[in-house]
């Protein structure tokens, strides 16, 4: 089955990633389960699966595109950096905020995503704070 193939591939890839220094960031999993379970459920994130699927179906192409309608989580971001290095392909992930170009273990966003998030949150807070007041003035 296709999905079995993807999970098996992710397992193998995970081993290589660990050897290369990857550590699953279990903080991103909210369920109250033990570390091993956490590591497992992280593996099931759609962007990791989509990337594994893309790698398995490369057909000679040198890049993979993954689209996600939510923001990519920190662990997947980290994991995909390792994947791009191990597999030697460019992985382009479009999440709710921006494009991430993963190549040779680095991402184009240089992990600035968190700053963008903070800026967005600040902006929203400012709008929320200024909203009623601005209405009152006009
Ligand atoms: Zn994730
Ligand atoms: Zn990025």
Automatic annotation (TrEMBL):
InterPro entries: DYW_dom (IPR032867)
Protein family: Belongs to the PPR family. PCMP-H subfamily.
Protein name as annotated: DYW domain-containing protein
Pfam name, any one: DYW_deaminase
A GO term for molecular function: zinc ion binding
Highest classification ranks of the organism: Eukaryota, Viridiplantae, Streptophyta, Embryophyta, Tracheophyta
Residue ranges occupied by any DYW domain in the UniProt entry: 21-111
